[in-house]
Amino acid sequence: MRAAIRSRAFQSPTQQRWVTSSPTVSVSGTTTPLPANALNQKPKSPFYFDTGYSLFAKRPSRPFPPPFFSPPSGSFSDPLSTHNRSRDRRTYVNGEFIRGITNGDDAVLVGENFIGANDGVGAWAAREKGHAALWSRLILHFWALEAERDASVTDAAATSSEPDPVEYLQKAYEQTIAATSSPNEWNGTTTACAALLHYSTNEPRIPLLYVTNLGDSQCLVMRPKNQSLIYKTSEQWHWFDCPRQLGTNSPDTPIANAVMDKVIIEENDVVLAMSDGVVDNLWEHEVLANVVDSIRKWESGAGGEASGDRAGGAAGGMLFVAEELMKAARIVAEDPYAESPFMERAVEEGLAMEGGSSCDAESQTLPWVSLNQNHTGATTSWYDPGLPRQERRETTSKNPWKNH
């Protein structure tokens, strides 16, 4: 997912585009659906995310089980038939439309002031009553709902307090446990990563980013005008390939293990929320170079029709940037001989492994506002998707972010 911070004084119309390809599963768009009665249908913040997301799943998502999904009945005479809802393919919990969308075992949510990427642990698919996609989606749904209900987020008049995303996540975790307990028992675990856009309480108002992470998904904040990386989350592991996670039999909890950082940002900074399907296949310098290059292409007229001024990736450019980043990650993921961050970490652990990681991948992108001091040392000259593998391996050995 990618997003940019904008002032509402210059808000452009919302763009929505869905793209699917066969036989693989890929989807892209600008925002995920919201019910008509959502509290933050139009958040009252003076700033908003200009968003785009692109998803790729290694296999189709499993349908949610009842009572979260009401499948079409075979006939009107079926016992306990749900034919009255057979045309409604949406999923529900506690009478609420479930926010976000599912991507394989993962879940993403993209809104004007909240974006999130939860990475469900796919191994639960082999277990009885296992459904990681349900867990990742429900936690993200309840997390977003808690943010909607908090007056400090949804009410511009509540300037004396600030949001508490870790508390929101703790409540979401507890509500997910309740929703997946008897008689609707389903097991699963998921990482959690989200960014909430708020603003300072003093004049002049400046945008603030509240980034919360538990596990190995990642949030990056980039400043394309300086070609620099100004913030990244830190991965949390129990051991290699076993990140911290929320859910069945896991000792981790949001209140004890989630980390929240508050980042000052500025207009046209780019925020990325990504699952390990991206970060396992692209080094940070490659992500930075890809984003900067895609924004320049968009500004020069590439990437499709714009709804307004293209400067800084506005007017639909974040969707294009997200799609280009996903394409780059997918090239590596599907190359059995590729050099990749995942392969590098595996070798450091003494495991014989090569090629990219085939995890489900999500990229969300957003441009924004920040007053952070520029972070030095970033470079944009390393990534070229047209390079032969050997050349890419040689350039990655000089990766300036490797020990960042």
From TrEMBL:
Its cofactor is Mg(2+); Mn(2+). Residues 88-333 form the PPM-type phosphatase domain. Residues 71-81 have a biased composition (Low complexity). It is an enzyme of class 3 (hydrolase). Residues 9-18 have a biased composition (Polar residues). Keywords: Hydrolase, Magnesium, Manganese, Metal-binding, Protein phosphatase. InterPro entries: PPM-type-like_dom_sf (IPR036457), PPM-type_phosphatase-like_dom (IPR001932), PPTC7 (IPR039123). Its EC number is 3.1.3.16. It catalyses: O-phospho-L-threonyl-[protein] + H2O = L-threonyl-[protein] + phosphate; O-phospho-L-seryl-[protein] + H2O = L-seryl-[protein] + phosphate. GO terms for molecular function: metal ion binding; protein serine/threonine phosphatase activity. Residues 1-27, 67-86, 375-404 are annotated as: Disordered. Belongs to the PP2C family. This is Protein phosphatase. It comes from Letharia columbiana.
